[in-house]
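Lab meeting tomorrow. Please check the following:
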Amino acid sequence: MTDARGSARPNGGAPARHAPGTPCWVSLMAHSPAATEEFYGALFGWEFRPGPQRLGPYVRALLDGREVAGIGLLPPDRHLPIAWTPYFASADVDRTAQAVRSRGGTVGVGPLDVADAGRLAICSDPSGAVFGVRQASARLGTAVTGVPGAPAWNELTTFESATVAKFYETVFGYDEEPVVSADVDYVTLHLDGRPVAGVHGVGGAVPRDRGPHWTTFFTVTDVDDAVDHVLHLGGQVLAPARDSAQGRVVVVADPEGARFALVQEGGTGRSPRP
């Protein structure tokens, strides 16, 4: 499960700039950031550094000194689900925001400048799933993928895949690879021939309390061992661990209810689809 950019350059070099459309960052807004940092720090071995503060208290999670994610404070007056939000790279956030609106999506925040993190917008697709768009500045975003503790994949759970996948294809220039099956409604989104995200249509099985939503997958060395850690740290398992052609996968939640998935390292570089 790699993105179109791949991992950071060898020998500690700076990561390349993300190609437009590539997942480039994941961010979590929580009610209790300090407790949330403690949970993910213990689970993934993350360390934290402050900033940027444009949207309120915010920290960057680092893995071996390289940025992998962000955690911020959800304002108390915003009654929103606690959720991981993927950001997709853009060469021009304002133009991408216009494309989102013209294709039936919504721009909820921005576009706005966020210090050296660049320019960003927070949007939702026509089904209501929230995602971010980021135009990098000094900080390029996630600097490593596909290693334990780092993001590996992003998957959209929605009512049906075809219409929503077409939205993302139009906005970001993806190519689609649908699963040819009467039982599975799944589309893999490709960029320059590489899989970057998945769209899973589940019909009426979309959770009523959450609606269509993105789920971020993080790599772990051993899924079953990681599940034990999640439970010990106060999280919960939302669906039993399962084996797929792409590796062992489990869906869990942190103590505040933020949903995410764990995938065992050593997969094939493809989506953990059903």
The chain has two domains: 10-135, 151-264. The mean pLDDT is 87. The radius of gyration is 17 Å. The CA atoms of residues 170 and 266 lie 32 Å apart.
